[in-house]
């Protein structure tokens, strides 16, 4: 029965991790030795533990020699890669320069400059492009104008509604002020009629009747002896007393 596939992940248990490191390191050293012997290869192996302890293996040639050889090969590869990258950058630079020149020439042609080198077909193509661009510009301009007009109309309607509402409130306020003014004038006339009555010599009966009128009383002396004085007083003051009150008092 074959071994199951082991999931590669960090071993959480510290002791198990250290045991596994020792076993795997020994196996790695053994494999390095086998490949160097079987294939006549130069092998250099460097391993640092989690605590920083160094473990290394190298073939018959020293570790320093293998590292120097590695550095030389790395330098050559980096140099070749750098040269390749430089060539690619030079090619890309030339492409970008050509594209920039083409865009600048097209820009000058669009504003009506440097048209002499262009052929008839190129001029016709340029004209067609400009006409299409002009149509798109006009369409966009008309759209913006319509949107602006619509917004102004909505704003005008809103302002008109506000104006109508304010005018209605002003009219209601004016009516209310007129009613209040009329009521104040009526009250002032009534007070002037009763309280500012001209002084004259009156009998006690007439004085009593006048006091009843000024105090707002609705009853007059019922006796016949006082009716003559009251009617005379009412006759003299009929120019100041309102008709409806004079009629009430005469009854």
Could you write a compact summary of the structure shown?
With 251 residues, the protein is mainly α.
Structure description:
The chain is mainly alpha-helical and 251 residues long. Among the domains are: 51 residues, Transcription factor, MADS-box (SRF-like, 3-Layer(aba) Sandwich); 47 residues; 64 residues, no CATH class. The chain is built from six helices and two strands, in the order αββααααα. The chain has a two-stranded antiparallel sheet with strand order 1-2. The longest helix has 76 residues.
SSE layout and pairings?
Elements: H1 14-39, E1 44-48, E2 54-58, H2 63-110, H3 120-195, H4 204-214, H5 224-236, H6 243-250
Antiparallel strand pairs: 1-2
Helix pairs in contact: 4-5
Q: Helix-strand pattern, N to C?
A: HEEHHHHH
- Across the major sheet, the strand order is 1-2
Number of helices: 6
The helix content is over 70%
Q: How does the helix and strand content classify structurally?
A: mainly alpha
Q: What fraction of the residues are assigned to beta strands by DSSP?
A: under 5%
Span between N and C termini?
A: 136 Å
Radius of gyration: 59 Å
| Total number of beta strands | 2
**pLDDT averaged residue by residue:** 77
Give the biggest sheet: 2 strands, antiparallel
Shape, per Cα inertia axes: elongated
Low-pLDDT runs of 5+ residues are 199-204, 213-227
């Amino acid at each position: 029965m074959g071994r199951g596939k082991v999931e590669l992940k960090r071993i959480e248990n510290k002791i198990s991790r250290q045991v596994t490191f020792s076993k795997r390191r020994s196996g790695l050293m053994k494999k390095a030795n086998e490949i160097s012997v079987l294939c006549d290869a130069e092998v250099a192996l460097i391993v640092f533990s989690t605590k920083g302890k160094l473990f290394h293996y190298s073939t018959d040639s020293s570790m320093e020699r293998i590292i120097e050889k590695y550095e030389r090969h790395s330098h050559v590869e980096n140099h070749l890669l750098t040269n390749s990258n430089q060539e690619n950058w030079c090619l890309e630079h030339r492409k970008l320069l050509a594209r920039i020149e083409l865009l600048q020439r097209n820009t000058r042609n669009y504003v009506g400059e440097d048209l002499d080198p262009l052929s008839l077909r190129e001029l016709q193509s340029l004209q067609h492009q400009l006409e299409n661009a002009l149509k798109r510009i006009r369409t966009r301009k008309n759209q913006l104008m319509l949107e602006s007009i619509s917004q102004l109309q909505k704003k005008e309607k809103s302002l008109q509604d506000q104006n109508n509402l304010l005018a209605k409130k002003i009219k209601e306020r004016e009516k209310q002020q007129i009613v209040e003014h009329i009521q104040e004038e009526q009250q002032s006339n009534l007070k002037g009629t009763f309280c500012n009555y001209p002084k004259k010599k009156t009998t006690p009966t007439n004085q009593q009747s006048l006091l009843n009128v000024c105090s707002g009383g609705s009853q007059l002396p019922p006796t016949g002896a006082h009716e003559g004085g009251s009617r005379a007083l009412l006759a003299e003051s009929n120019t100041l007393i309102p008709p409806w009150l004079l009629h009430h008092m005469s009854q």
